[in-house]
Cas1p 10 TM acyl transferase domain-containing protein (Coccolithus braarudii), 599 residues
Amino acid sequence: HKAGAATSARPPATTARYRASSFRHGHCAERSASSGSEALVRMSLLSHVVALGVALAALPCYYAIISFLASTSEIEHHTPAQLGVCIFYGAVLAVWAGFEAGFFVLRMQPKYEEIDDNSDDMEAEPVPEEARVLNGVSKHPESRIAFIPKTQLPALRASAEFVLIMGYVYLCDRTTLVAKGPKELSSLRFWGLNLLILLAGLASLRATPTAETHVKPIQRDQTEEWKGWMQVMFILYHYFAEAKIYNAIRLYIAAYVFLTGFGNFSYYYIKQDFTIVRFAQMMWRLNFFVFFVCATMNNEYMLYYICPMHTFFTWGVYLTLWAGNALNSNDLFLLFKIAALLVLTAVLYDVNGVFGAVFQPAAALLGFHDPLHPEFTDSLHEWFFRSHLDHLVWIFGMLCAYCFPWADRQLQRLDELPTPTRLAARSGVVGATLLLGFHWYYSAFVLGKRDYNKLHPYTSWIPILCYLVLRNISNTMRRYSMHLFSWCGKVTLETYILQFHIWMKTTGINGSPKFLMVWVPGWYWLNMSLTSAAFLFVSYRVFQITVTLRDACISKNLASLGRGSLGALALIALFYGAGCLAFSSLAASALPPEAPAAP
């Protein structure tokens, strides 16, 4: 319509010249489109052939590497699940290699370009928009090989990198290629290293970027910092076997669980986002990595008890706020739900027989068989012990999140008081907090391991509350955080899992990290520095890969999410079946040949 109007507005001579030029452009466009289309078809066919060839060539290379790892493995027999995930890893690497090569070929294909008319009579007249379109296509079509568009290549690369990381995990902890050594028990080294890390953290102190004068308490940077410095002490506790701080480690784990209750309640209470998509993203974050580690290493889920604990308590927060969520703005109704949750939790853990009856159907998932403690015949013993220690503190986290607006208002009023009054009020709050903390310390924290564990579920909220008050008492305290620990706080899940296998070495299947990984024998600090650098780098990469694959695999469309979930279950069944076939084949080949029948 626009072209017709423009043509009718021109003088007759100009219109005739334009039609002639359009006729020439049309023929030129058709010839260019025809030759371009033929080239595109050839390049597309070539890219598919190259992709298939490279993928097939990658499989024997992968088989050779796996055979080598199996020959050096400390584990004689592998399970069908391990063989199935091994086949899956090979398929991922082959698919990635093939598509990487195929898209590389596609990058060399000719591109659509605007028609260049060099005729003298058209130099002063621009080519109209409709003459630039080749057969209705105004831009290069999306690159695609088979059913995979080029936009999915980053996810394929992340998947391939993840497979390589899982191979590295197996190599470090299940083969004889990496040596292991005893832990060196030294409180001086433990505390000296913690002091150096603290000084480095203080050097990374920075203000939270905000334009507001009043800084709200318990900001994201602060909670990440909190998780970070606790995680540093937690993994060093394992590295140096510093059993003297057992009670402190129990408290740190309680603080993690507290933050699970606090963070999830805050999100669901404020956002009112109870969609399956959001919840699936959270479950992916908590369980994607540990699922593949368990399948690869043949360990039970409960070996990494932090994951099932946080998963269970996240479910608790979600279901509590989801039930009757339209009435969550009613304070009485919300407090009633929290009180009901508290009663149900107390019944579950503190009434004999209830816990076993509830969780026995999930014993296959939550059961644990500790090779170091065969005296525990109840497979749910570990799950009860770990979750019982922190079965109340996550509800305290929910209550703190509910009281957050009130606490923020009180802090703002405190900051607005005249200086003498403000200092006096802060001193009073700090004094009362320290008094409460000292009472808890001398009445509970100094007890022995077993006695402390009896009090821990009911008293862990006290030091957590004291820490929150002291950490947020002033605007300056709330504004600044240590960036080093905030960074560490982002990868707590990854460092928790990987410390077992690429920083230390376990005793085997379901084993604890009782040994150190040795790269440089005889050089303790050099060895620790090198293994720590690799450990932190791999942890951060796993964190990034988890996020990348979460965004690629979890669709924001509910129907697509359902289809994707069914597809994932089908893939699990397919590769587990392949693992069972491989297991049967290996078992049959290992049988001795039958003796010939007697004549």
Remarks:
- DSSP finds 23 helices and seven strands in the chain.
- Residues 1-10, 13-20, 114-140 have pLDDT under 50 and may be disordered.
